[in-house]
Amino acid sequence: MAVSKQDRRNKIRKRVRKAITGTASRPRLSVFRSNKEIYAQIIDDVEGKTLAAASSRDKGVSVEGNKSEQAKLVGKALAEKALKAGVETISFDRGGYLYHGRVKSLAEGAREGGLKF
Q1: CATH code of the region 23-112
Q2: 3-class DSSP assignment, residue 67
């Protein structure tokens, strides 16, 4: 039986999440990518709290440019919010997506914004 893209991504996502957990000293940067938008959160899994979040739907992110450029802006915006919240180092959770395209652009934007992976 053929496995759908969603099932494949969820299987990878569970495998990645076994190894990566967010703590107060090193929270997890979680990425969700839809067809139109991209969303990112910095999460402390021990407390169960989101410390910072950004998406391509926020007002600070311009509508101009392609989706990869928007993802880079989301990464920079998230890094800015995270630094205000006192977070400098994170562990990156790609959410079952390949580290390529928009996910990679978001990570590069977060690094440029000052986050350490």
Answers
A1: 3.30.420.100
A2: helix
